[in-house]
Design goal:
- With 77 residues, the chain is α+β, with helices and mostly antiparallel strands.
- Helix content is 18%, strand content 16%.
- It starts with a strand and ends in a 10-residue tail after the last helix.
- It binds zinc ion.
Length: 77
């Protein structure tokens, strides 16, 4: 059995409710895709996540999929 640490996305965003994303089968969020960054230690997992383009701030993590502001969302914060 392999012991490893996974970085899970804190955002877990879905695609915007606009027609252009209606047919999306793939999850937007990497964690929902089971594609979380992994490592054999927390430090290694965080390093790997950053390499993949994740935003890591303290205990907060956001995957590249959720990091992007897509048309039809954002600007409301
Ligand atoms: Zn995400």
């Amino acid at each position: 059995m392999g012991l490893y640490v996974e970085i899970m996305c804190d955002e877990r965003k879905n695609w915007p409710g606009t027609p252009e994303y209606a047919g999306k089968i793939e999850h937007r969020c990497w964690s929902n895709r089971n594609d979380s960054a992994q490592g054999y230690s927390v430090a290694q997992a965080r390093k790997e996540a950053k390499k993949q383009g994740w935003k890591i701030i303290g205990r907060y993590a956001c995957c590249p999929g959720c990091l992007k502001n897509l048309p039809g969302e954002g600007a409301s914060e």
